[in-house]
Amino acid sequence: MKTNSIEIFPSLEEFRNLSVKGNLVPVFAILSSDNDTPVQVFQKLRTEYSFLLESAERTGQMGRYSFVGRNPVVIFRSSGKTITITEGGNIQTFEVKDDPLSELERFMSRYRYVPITGLPQFTGGAVGYLGYEAVCSFEPKKLKVAKNDVLATPENIFMIAEQVVCFDHLERRLYLISNASIADGDVAGAYEKACREVVELANSLQKPPNLPYVSYQNKIPEISFKSNLTEGRFKEMVGEAKKLILSGDIIQVVLSQRFEVEYTGDPLHLYRTLWMVNPSPYMFCITFGNELSIVGGSPEVHVKCIDGKVQIRPIAGTRKRGETPEKDAELAVELLEDPKEQAEHVMLLDLARNDIGRIAKYGSVKVTEKFQIERFSHVMHIVSNVVGEKLDGLSSYDVMRASFPAGTVSGAPKVRAMQIISELELDKRGVYSGAVGYFGFDGNLDSCIALRTVVIKDGKAYVQAGAGIVHESTPEGEFEETRNKARGMLLAIARANAM
Which residues form the Chorismate-utilising enzyme C-terminal domain (predicted)? Predict the structure, then answer.
């Protein structure tokens, strides 16, 4: 079908044939992607609830795909066992016996998606975050939610997006996608509505961009921040954790502190400065109305399940980047030879194997990379890669549940480590150390750990960072590690505040 010089796929006849297979069919147009950047498209299209998902390769260059979504048809949020679903102006709140992730899976099962060959890996679905405390719903008899809820954010929010714009940077293509939801057998009506939405997306892209320049600054702006913990209290926590490790209660636990900064700017400005100072494999800017926004550059996949192939890529072991190539190489050797860092990484590699083993076919779990150095803007890490094949009959929601939260942000044994976290940290973590990503209409899952993530709420920006405590840890070293991990985010906030 052609409308306003845009060719829309599939044709009505092809759409009718596809609709026999399900009730959700992608309708799309393909344009050249050289007119706009993903940030410009997000700025032109965004509504109260919108998202921008991108990826920077290890070299800092842009990954293959970027995704922009707006105008979700459903907002799914939960705290504890209470679910709130907003759909078409109607708000429904109810209690569930199962965990909220099971309810999201049941809700998403209404969509019987019909895939079309050649489209990008994500064409729509549930986009948002699963907060750290969601694990208390997965293990209700063993885990209790921390007492202090300072940020008061929902444990989970997902927006179900039927309209998505996808950049394919390799092919230099721009896909404008509207997933046609077929209700009451009105195939032609669903198709015509989706075609109109594709045209509306194209027309919106004709608007000129309205973005201020982001200036590269040699001078680092000053920023005033405060932590939810004093240096002394954090070091006390490390000491208490080490006593538990020495007694054999645990092997490792990840303890964190949260930094608070004044921020009343646009989340998109912060996202742009973050790209400058901390490009990462998982970049995101997600706005949840007036409630909150999250902006992040996470280095670490939480779990990925694409066409039944499951991947976890544990990161553990950290050093600051060197000021010269020679110093950088020296620090990398020092990191790999550090017994404390080795012990921490081996532990988390074993956790990743165990997590995938819970939902994988027998014999399919493999370590494909081991003890590799990956460099980011301010730090370097030791990284490994674990893969497996999902068992038949399980879903991507089962994969998420089996691996949540990541061992990287909890410890080992995982449940006991989380019990200690709630005892020592006292404050709810919220978004931090949970998962950010999507459950696609096609059943696929891609998510990152909510690290290097800024939560923007009520004129404040919050950054949280943790350190893995093991037998060889020192209170001074672990305190400094949390500051190093937060440094890139705090710098991005300072630059965004200066815009």
Answer: 233-485
